[in-house]
Amino acid sequence: MTTKTHESVVTGQFGPRAAAYVTSAVHAQGEDLQKLAEMVRGHGTARALDLGCGGGHVSFHVAPHVAEVVAYDLSEEMLAAVQSSAAERGLGNIVTRQGAVERLPFEDASFDFVISRLSAHHWRDFAAGLREARRVLKRSGHAVFIDGVTPGQGLLDTYLQTIELLRDPSHFRNYSRAEWRQALTDAGFVPDAGTLRKLPLEFSSWVARIGTPEIHVQAIRSLHGKSLSQVALRWLAEQKGVTAIPRTSTEKHARENFDIFDFELDAEDRRALDALPAKGRVVNPGWSPDWDAA
């Protein structure tokens, strides 16, 4: 029996889908990318490392402001897509290198900036990757790590890791803020307080982009475990000018009503709800908002 290495799982997942990550709106946009561009602006002689570059979006935002960006990734197909897109954008100062984060092929203190965005949860050895990032960063340099974090509670951690692994078998682990701080300190960094941001994800494109098997998609949906009444109440709560006051006679139902705020409806859910006939509504009083306006 042949056992796949974690690296081969990662490249097998992302190589065939490189173009999808270059064009992904979730990855190509965000306040964090704007902040990164602001950070490097004015450092025209600097050299930056985009660690686990994926679709290259950090590289594309940083390159106009520095002398050179090295886009580094495990997937050769991903790097080819980044190089092609860089050429189309006229960014000739982006170069690509292939390899693992745990073994960086660069000299000590060779970068002014080391940036990793939405990559660390794929690393086989988190601590080794951070040590290597610190090794190649100049003493006066700056490092930025951006990734999803867990709430730091055992049950919620298990829930998140399960969803991520069902979606993408190359997922290794998300870490809590406390784990990040300790790991960064151990690697020789001096971490600041960090910034928390929400990352809205549209479910259908999220699973389609990585090619999640349908049986896993259904498993992920089952983990949400919401009733039809909860979905309907969540939809009502999202309507402008509406205050939904559900009637309840038991403590159990009251808890279920509050639980509508721990999930979000995606575009597919909303399309299905919008397609329901107005005449089929149980309650549609004359004073209600014009929900069905063309």
Topology, element by element:
Elements: H1 6-14, H2 18-23, H3 25-28, H4 31-40, E1 47-51, H5 57-62, E2 68-73, H6 76-88, E3 94-98, E4 111-117, H7 126-136, E5 137-146, E6 149-150, H8 154-167, E7 175-176, H9 177-187, H10 203-210, H11 214-224, H12 228-238, H13 251-258, H14 267-274
Parallel strand pairs: 1-2, 1-4, 2-3, 4-5, 6-7
Helix pairs in contact: 7-9, 8-11
Describe this structure in words.
There is one protein chain. With 294 residues, this protein is of the alpha/beta class. It has two domains: 6-151 and 172-206, Vaccinia Virus protein VP39 (Rossmann fold); 227-294, no CATH class. It is 44% helix and 13% strand. The chain has a five-stranded parallel sheet with strand order 3-2-1-4-5. A two-stranded parallel sheet has the order 6-7. α7 packs across α9. The radius of gyration is 22 Å and the shape is elongated.
- What is the CATH class of the largest domain? Alpha Beta
- What is the second-level CATH architecture of the largest domain? 3-Layer(aba) Sandwich
Number of E-type strands: 7
The biggest beta sheet, please? 5 strands, parallel
Overall 3D shape: elongated
Rg, rounded, reads: 22 Å
Distance between the termini: 59 Å
Estimate the mean pLDDT confidence. Answer: 84
Structure classification = alpha/beta
Write down the secondary-structure element order: HHHHEHEHEEHEEHEHHHHHH
The helicity comes to: 40-55%
The name CATH uses for the topology of the largest domain is Rossmann fold
User: What is the percentage of strand-forming residues?
Assistant: 5-15%
Counting structural domains, the number is 2
Strand order across the largest sheet: 3-2-1-4-5
- Unreliable residue stretches: none
